[in-house]
Each structure stands twice: as structure tokens, then as C-alpha cells.
Amino acid sequence: MPVSLGVDPATLDILQSACSDFGNIVAFTRPNGRLAYFINDPLEIRRMLVRQHSNYIKGPGFERVKMLLGNGLIVSDGDVWRRSRTMIQPAFSRANVHQLVNLMVRCCEKRNKRWTSAAEAGEVLNITQETSDFALELILRSIFGADYDRFVLADGINPFAFLSDDSARDLRVVLKVRELRRLVLGVISERRRDTSEHSYDFLGAYVNARDKSGNAFDDDELLDELMTLIIAGYETSAGTLNWAWFLLARNPQLHTALVVEARTHIPDAKAVDSESIAGMRYAQAFLEETLRLYPPVWIFSRRAIADDQLKDYDLPAGTDIYLSPYVLHRSECFWPQPLTVDPERFVTEPGAAKGEPAYFPFSLGPRRCLGEYFSFLEMKIHLGILAQKFTMQPVGDADPLLDLGINLRSQSDIFLRPGLRIP
Predict the structure, then answer these.
(1) Residue 9's CB: how many other CB atoms inside 10 A?
(2) Cα Rg for the chain, rounded, in angstroms?
(3) Nearest-CA neighbor of 369 among 333, 342, 401, 407?
């Protein structure tokens, strides 16, 4: 019987049941008659995404993402993707991203003031909204720099705020995003004319990027790449921090371990630098464990452009491939006690070689997320500064359900009660 797969709870049930009944490589027939495989074998996933990546293009489901983001790095393929990736990659070097550390600290200090007032007043925090607002402001300021206040907030209202206020990614939101392209194009035009010195930001890096022929992005290309960076860069960190605070509130021993480390490496915001952040190995491990349990993209697809072999199975050209970090990360055959929150899974000694676990929250190979280091940096700073200042108590006992859309979200907002932690 043909099986329809998408981004919905029914698909997750189908994939989990298929693995349980048939193993980690399962063949389906899609309603259009096309052959499809669900692959939950980490070695085969790595082979396809790393060694054989050139044989696989974006599969079904990316049309919906393209409506939202245009033809940016996430959805493009072939020469278009290769050119964009090469042009954008230098913007995310560690040296460049470290120029944004002080901005990250300032955004955390803004949350610190807000959460302190809430704790003193005995108020409850909507941590989903708080992490969304934090991540959105940070990515916008990281992109636009001084132009964020000059042009984006020119009317005193953040026109991107609906991304944080409304979790839906339907046609209505697509239309709102498209309306913003005119605003972003105006900022791009101003930046192209502006020859004055700017502090580092992603807009400047993208405007100045050149391909091997010396050509820059045209306006449409630049718009697609910037909108991709805004939405993808914001949603990944916002969602992960939302789940991270949920786990800390439910597992106070993990929160205590974070506090001990943070007080050692960043006793105050002025101590935040590349060396202190690198020393926060437990925070890194905790975030990796959070991403294991709640990968931002829970399912994605590829399509074979030439015949391939999948262990003992023939994989003809045109076959659709479905991969699910969420299912893989929670598979008992690869992770002992997979539903237990245990950051120690990811704790390694400095300089120790990492293996190749059944783990790919940011994809693998050449299409691995360029913003991965930026995201970890902002999240480690966020937790390092704020975890040592506040306790967090759950409000109610119910677990938030999963919103299985394009990104993995909590179906309902998570509310926590903050308390001031004694120094």
C-alpha cells in the first residue's frame, strides 16, 4: 500500500513502527508510485551524506521550504549551491564569528535584566517566547549591525517580530516574509552605497563576498541568502534553548553542573572570551545531548540522481530517501537508555578524538550547517551567563508535546518560574 510521508505526527509513527517491525532500512512506495527508502543506519547515512553526497539532491518536502526561503543555501542544489556555499563560508570562520561575542553577551544581559525583574516580582517566564526573542534579536543584529537600529527599527517596531510571536510556517507567514524582502533590499542598497567602516556583521560579509570569477551576489541571490540566514539561524538556536531550559528545570542536577562550570570559566560577563567559552565542555556536552533528543530538523529527504547500492538493496536513480535525526538519536540499538538525559555521552577530554556516533543534528558532509559554530557559541554564552544567575522551576507536570513541522518545536509554550540564585 502506498505510504505518504511528510512533516507530521503520522509520519513519525510510520517511521518508528517501520524500524521496530523491519529494521533500519525500510522500503516504501509513495502515492505517486516512486520508490522510497527510510534509512536509520548511521553508516549508510554517513556514506550518503559524506562520501556519496554528489549523487543526492534535495528530495520531496523542500518545495515548502523554498516557498519560505527562496533559493538560498538550504534548498539550492548543484552549481548554484556550490557557488553560494563557497562565497558564504568565510563569513562563518571562527575568527569572524568571535567578533560577535560581545554582541552575544549584550543580548544575554538584556535577558538577565528581564528575568531578574520577573524573579523579584514572583512572575512566571514564557521561556519559549524568551528564547525566541533572544535568538531573533541576536541573529538580526549579527546580520545588520548598526543598520538594525537605523533602518530595521526605524519606526520603533521590529517588523520581524512575527517570526518569534507566531510559530506557524503556513502561507500567511510566507506572505509576510515576502513583504520583508522589500525592507531588506533597502538595507542592502544602503550598504552597497556606504563606503564607511563597519564593525563585522554578516550583511557586510555577504555583500563583499565574491565567487571565483570575481562576481558578487546579485540582489535576488543576496535576499534569498539573508532570509535563509535570518529564519534558519534564529529557529535553530531558539528551539534548542527552549528545550535546554525545559531539561534543566526537570533535571536540577544538570543545572548545578552547568553552574559550577560557568562560575569557573565566566564568573561575570566581562570574562567571556574565546578561551573561556572553549573551556565550557560540560555546556557543550549538555547542548549536544539536547540536540540529540530534540534535533531542530527532525526529518529531511534526498533523491538519488544515479543508481546506487544500499547494503544488499539496489537503489535506482530517482529513489527518494528519508532520514530522521529524531528517530536515529532515540534508537536503542545505537544509544543506551536513549530517553535518559545524559550529557556525559558527549563529554570528552581535550584533544581526544571523537568517534562517529549515530548523530547528525546539523546534517553531515558538505551540506553540514555552516552556522553550527555560531549557534553553539551563542547558546554556550547564553547558558553560561544565565544558568548561574537563576534557578528554574517547572510550572505544572505535563510534558510539552512535539510540534512536528519543518522544525521540531514544542507544541505548547513552556513556562518556568525563575528564582535568583545565591552567588
Answers:
(1) 12
(2) 22
(3) 407
Integer Cα distance of 374 and 305 in angstroms: 32
Q: Is the dihedral of CA 105, 360, 37, 40 positive or negative?
A: negative
The pTM assigned to this predicted structure is 0.95
Q: Which three cell numbers stand for residue 362?
A: 546539523
List Cα–Cα distances, 199 to 49, 58, 116, 248, in angstroms. 36, 36, 30, 35
Q: How far is Cα 121 from Cα 118, in angstroms, rounded to an integer?
A: 5
Strands 308-310 and 313-315: antiparallel
Helix (H, G, I), strand (E, B) or coil at 371: coil
d(CA 336, CA 333): 7
In degrees to the nearest 10, what's the CA dihedral of 399, 39, 288, 73?
-110
Q: Which of 377, 390, 417 is nearest to 259 (CA)?
A: 390
**Structural contact between residues 134 and 382, judged by C-beta atoms closer than 8 angstroms:** yes
Q: Which three cell numbers stand for residue 337?
A: 537508555
Q: Are 145 and 198 in contact (CB under 8 A)?
A: yes
- Please state, in angstroms and rounded to a whole number, the distance separating the CA atoms of residues 134 and 385: 13
Cell numbers for 210:
565574491
Which residues are bridge partners to 314 per DSSP?
Answer: 309
Largest Cα separation within the chain, whole Å, is 64
Helix (H) or strand (E) holding 403, with range, is strand 402-404
Q: Which of 264, 259, 266 is nearest to 286 (CA)?
A: 259
Q: For 292-341, what is each residue's pLDDT tens digit?
A: 999 999 999 999 999 999 888 899 999 999 999 999 999 999 999 999 99
User: Hey, what's the cell of 136?
Assistant: 531573533
pLDDT 10s digits, 388-400: 999 999 998 888 8
> What are the φ/ψ torsions at residue 199 (nearest 5 degrees)?
-65, 160
